[in-house]
Amino acid sequence: MKVKTCALCGLGIGVGLSITALVSMGAGHGTYRPLHLFFAPLAALDPFPVLLAGVLLYGLYGFLLSIAARRAYGWPALALLVVFHYATYAFARRVDSEDPVYISRTWAAVPEYLIAGGCIFFGAHVLAIAYVIRNRRKAPHR
């Protein structure tokens, strides 16, 4: 795939995650945890700018992964992106003081959006791994 195609794929994933996070927030009566998980590096910002910047974040992820996979260091780049993302999520969870009851309320109201968000999020991981494996075979060895 071309770099542009990977970036557009990342943007599409970001849009899907933004929609599911927005519905999960439920006008302030839901939970912000999916938002913090999906867009962990941006979790310190206000929620609505995160929804917009998060789309660009996943576009950047796709762009970086595409460039790294073409240069035969896709695995280290993918590992670095995943570690960076989850490390910032761990930090966001430490500063998050949300009451766990909001997760229960959100699950009761819109479980399909939480499931869809989880599927998109983990599906993005699978796509990234498959992309790196596919391009590893094509990358020239040095």
Gyration radius over CA: 16 Å
| Ends apart, CA distance between termini | 21 Å
Oligomer: single chain
* Percent helix: over 70%
Unreliable residue runs:
none
Q: Main beta sheet, described?
A: none
State the helix count.
Answer: 6
Number of strands: 0
Spell the H/E element sequence: HHHHHH
Structural class: mainly alpha
What is the residue-averaged pLDDT? 82
What is the general shape? Answer: elongated
Percentage of residues in DSSP E strands: under 5%
Could you characterize what this model shows?
Helix 3 runs antiparallel to helix 4. The protein contains six helices and no strands. The longest helix has 28 residues, at 111-138. With 142 residues, the protein is an all-alpha fold. It has helices spanning 3-25, 33-38, 47-70, 74-95, 101-109, 111-138.
Mind sketching the topology for me?
Elements: H1 3-25, H2 33-38, H3 47-70, H4 74-95, H5 101-109, H6 111-138
Helix pairs in contact: 1-3, 1-6, 3-4, 3-6
Kindly summarize this structure in a few lines.
This protein is an all-alpha fold and 142 residues long.
List keywords for this structure.
79% helix; 142 residues; mainly alpha
